[in-house]
# Entry
Amino acid sequence: MEFQTLSRMTFRIAAASLLAGVAALGSSPALAETDCVTTISSIFAGSGGLIWITFADSSTVEIPQSNPSQTAILSLAVSAQLANRQVQVRYPSGVCTGHHAEIVGLFLK
# Structure
């Protein structure tokens, strides 16, 4: 009888720990990425390899040379602007407006 009670208690503690772990993962900042659809107004390249993109909604993003996707993002941005196509910008933060010092990715729509 004591073994069954101890076993149930162990199971409840394990289940509670598992649920707490899942809840903690659900609130992880990495899951807070935001996708924004817009068009590109201008692209600046210079200043030590920095790429600066301004979008039609007046938001901006800077892509430093240290970003491993900088060349690919620049290529997509120029293609989108020349073709007058929309882009979907993925930011690590939860807002579309304002200035962004980081970008996760750029999709050509």
